[in-house]
């Protein structure tokens, strides 16, 4: 690592949450839940794209919005090269994922639930 681990305060988290919501609208995703934490993001979405593509799109768009907000230097590295993605096939899986994202992350930070 050539930079210290990235940490988001409340203003950073709010920008990232707004970016996720906006990108979802632009790409016609149905955002079901999102929780922006101090050093990572969880989200559940319904989309006509692979989860890895959605994750990369969110990272790119959130970085662009953080840069536009002037909260970090544009050279700041924020996200891990990959992340955890999975397909959810049943209502039970989707409900469990939403519960995990919204209620099982500890203290509530920047949260969205549809």
Describe this structure in words.
The protein is an alpha+beta fold and 114 residues long. The chain is built from 3 helices and 3 strands. It has helices at residues 10-27, 51-69, 91-103, and strands at residues 30-36, 41-46, 110-113. A 3-stranded antiparallel sheet has the order 2-1-3, sandwiched between helices. Helix 1 crosses helix 2 (51-69). The protein is globular, with a radius of gyration of 14 Å.
What are the salient characteristics of this protein?
three-stranded antiparallel sheet; alpha+beta; 3 helices; globular; single chain; 114 residues
Summary?
This protein has 114 residues and is of the alpha+beta class. 44% of the residues lie in helices and 15% in strands.
Distance between the termini: 36 Å
Order of strands across the main sheet:
2-1-3
Instruction: Classify the secondary structure makeup into a structural class.
Output: alpha+beta
Strand segment count: 3
Order of helices and strands: HEEHHE
Overall outline = globular
Spatial extent as radius of gyration: 14 Å
Oligomeric state of the chains present here: single chain
Task: Give me the number of helical elements.
Answer: 3
Main sheet makeup? 3 strands, antiparallel
- Average predicted local confidence, pLDDT: 95
Q: What percentage of amino acids are in beta strands? A: 5-15%
The helical percent reads 40-55%
pLDDT below 50 for ≥5 consecutive residues: which ranges?
A: none
């Amino acid at each position: 690592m050539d930079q210290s681990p990235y940490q988001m305060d409340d203003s950073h988290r709010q920008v990232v949450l707004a970016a996720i919501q906006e990108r979802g609208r632009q790409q016609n995703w149905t955002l079901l839940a999102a929780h922006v934490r101090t050093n990572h993001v969880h989200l559940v979405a319904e989309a006509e794209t692979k989860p890895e593509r959605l994750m990369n799109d969110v990272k790119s768009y959130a970085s662009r919005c953080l840069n536009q907000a002037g909260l970090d230097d544009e050279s700041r590295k924020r996200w891990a090269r990959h992340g955890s993605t999975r397909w959810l096939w049943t209502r039970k899986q989707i409900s469990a994922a939403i519960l995990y994202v919204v209620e099982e992350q500890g203290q509530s930070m920047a949260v969205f639930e549809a």
